[in-house]
Structure formats: structure tokens, C-alpha cells
Backbone:
């Protein structure tokens, strides 16, 4: 029971490496670029092990930048241990055709906040770049923190330096540099907003720090670019007593896709662990649930009452689930 959207033909017009692990792609839609706003993502159809699947990638930069009326720009980190979408894209040649959806925005920020703190981790810079550029162009008060594993992975750093100057702070984990979220949040004026995109650990830490500071939940905006979790992906089993099924989930596939392949319908929308629509009740678990969503709070994840089927996994065993959809 997916929310289906029409797919349109497009051509890969150009590509370039931004770092050893990140490549930028220019995608020219056959029917023309549709209007989009900063924070939007673009859905692409990718082929993984003979299966067609959907992946979402943030649009980079500004919708009114030179050339933005001709192509969509995305930047993709190659993840050899990921679900296969990045490997598919990195295997494309300039001129290849692909299918894309319409731009969609689930990552809106307030443009009139008294102050904005932008935080990007790794490839999470892709939606944050345009926010920094647009806020700066409007003369809005802001500061930005951008962290990556090493200096050569700080893509778009030169663009950001030119845009923000001293308002930009860079951090490299291989140099022992970390973002002190508690201190950064404590320094914000009342009514400030935090917009964040990065690894799951960073987002969980930011949500916890935001709550400790007593800040309004509505002033924290975030999006996840992937679902790395806290454990390496491994196969696990799933039992569904209501359906009389026991199925195996391979390391390279997510639970939601496997359920659908076995005829088990589940509501879903974002398929990135953000909306919670695909949450299923946990009856029992053998091993550890690796909650890879950003929908449930740390307390809810610890309670292990539900999991998001689109991203969550189990390490060291499997899980018994009640798949019947019942509105709360």
C-alpha cells in the first residue's frame, strides 16, 4: 500500500566527483524541471539485483541558481555496504536514461526565525547547502556547523566559505574534532531554530540535546539521508503469526520490501524512517532491534514496542511481529 507517484523520463547530463566517496549528478528531465523549494528531494528508480526500487536524494543548491531551470542536481555518497542505490547511480554513464519522480519537500524550515543554526554531517550537507545560501541571501542571522570524516570529504566547503565566511565552522572527525551540541544549543537565542541532516547517531544526539535544553520541538527540523543504524546489516528472521509466515530478510533488503514481496500489505509513505506510517507491533524479539528510524524517541526505541518496517533491522536473531494495521 505505497503512495505511488508518476515516473518521468530523464537523462544523466553530467557527473563529477566531489570527493573520493561523493559524486554529483546533473539530471535533465524530459518534460522540464518542475518548480521546487530548498529542502526538496527527488525520487529516482534504481535497479538493485534485478529489482526496481525507489530512492530519494536531496536536491542541491538553489532553485533559481544558473542552470537550475534545466537540470536537477543531486550528490550521492557511494556506499558499497548499502542497499545498492548508490552503486547503481555510480555505474551510470553520461547520457544514460533513468526514471524520476516530482520534487517533494518534507524538510521545510522557517525563513523568519530570529536565528538559525544549521548542522550537516557528511552527505547530509546536500539539503543544508541551499538553506545556508538562501538564508544568507535574505540577510537572516545564522551559523553553520559542518562535520565530515576528513577534510577531503567536506564537499561544497568552498562555496559555503564564500557564502558564510566566519559563520561557518568545519569539523573533521579524523582530527578528533566534534560538534558540542549542548553548548551550541545553549548559545542560541529564544525562538531560534535548528535544521539538521546527517547520520542517525548525529540526529539522535541532536534531538536529545534539544530536549535537554527545553527547546520547543517544533523549532527542530531534520531529515535523514540514510539509515546506517548502530549495527552492521545482517540477515534476520521474522515471524507473523497472524499470517502463518516465517520469512528471512537478507542483509541487503529491508523488512518492508520483503513483507510486500510475500504478499503482506503494510502502510508506507516516506520509506526512510521519518513518518512512522509503516510501524508494526513487536510481539517478541530474539537478539537486538536496530531502530534506524528518526520517528520514534530514544525512550520509545528502548521500550521495543514497535519498529518501522522500512528501515529497522534485527541483529543476532529475529522478531515476531503483529502486522495487522490498527489506527491508534
Residues:
Amino acid at each position: 500500500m505505497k503512495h505511488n507517484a508518476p515516473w518521468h523520463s530523464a537523462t544523466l547530463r553530467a557527473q563529477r566527483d566531489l570527493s573520493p566517496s561523493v559524486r554529483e549528478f546533473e539530471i535533465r528531465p524530459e518534460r522540464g524541471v518542475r518548480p521546487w523549494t530548498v529542502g526538496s528531494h527527488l525520487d529516482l528508480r534504481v535497479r538493485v539485483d534485478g529489482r526496481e526500487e525507489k530512492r530519494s536524494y536531496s536536491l542541491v543548491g538553489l532553485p533559481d541558481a544558473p542552470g537550475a531551470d534545466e537540470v536537477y542536481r543531486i550528490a550521492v555518497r557511494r556506499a558499497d555496504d548499502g542497499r545498492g542505490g548508490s552503486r547503481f547511480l555510480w555505474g551510470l554513464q553520461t547520457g544514460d536514461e533513468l526514471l524520476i519522480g516530482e520534487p517533494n519537500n518534507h524538510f521545510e524550515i522557517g525563513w523568519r526565525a530570529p536565528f538559525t543554526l544549521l548542522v550537516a554531517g557528511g552527505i547530509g550537507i546536500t539539503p543544508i547547502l541551499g538553506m545556508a545560501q538562501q538564508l544568507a541571501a535574505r540577510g537572516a542571522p545564522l551559523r553553520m556547523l559542518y562535520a565530515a570524516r576528513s577534510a577531503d570529504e567536506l564537499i561544497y566547503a568552498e562555496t559555503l566559505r564564500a557564502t558564510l565566511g566566519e559563520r561557518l565552522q568545519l569539523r573533521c572527525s579524523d582530527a578528533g574534532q566534534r560538534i558540542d551540541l549542548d553548548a551550541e544549543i545553549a548559545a542560541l537565542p529564544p525562538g531560534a531554530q535548528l535544521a539538521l541532516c546527517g547520520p542517525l547517531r548525529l540526529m539522535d544526539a541532536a534531538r536529545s540535546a534539544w530536549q535537554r535544553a527545553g527547546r520547543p520541538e517544533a523549532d527542530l527540523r531534520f531529515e535523514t539521508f540514510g539509515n546506517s543504524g548502530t549495527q552492521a546489516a545482517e540477515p534476520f528472521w521474522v515471524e507473523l503469526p497472524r499470517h502463518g509466515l516465517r520469512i528471512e530478510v537478507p542483509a541487503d533488503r529491508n523488512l518492508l520490501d520483503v513483507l510486500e514481496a510475500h504478499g503482506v500489505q503494510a502502510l508506507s509513505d516516506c520509506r526512510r524512517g521519518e513518518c512512522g506510517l509503516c510501524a508494526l507491533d513487536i510481539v517478541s524479539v530474539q537478539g537486538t532491534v536496530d531502530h534506524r528510524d528518526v520517528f520514534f524517541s530514544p525512550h520509545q526505541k528502548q521500550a521495543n514496542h514497535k519498529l518501522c518496517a522500512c528501515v529497522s533491522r534485527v541483529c543476532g536473531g529475529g522478531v515476531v511481529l503483529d502486522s495487522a494495521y490498527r489506527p491508534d
Summary: The first strand starts at residue 8 and ends at 17.
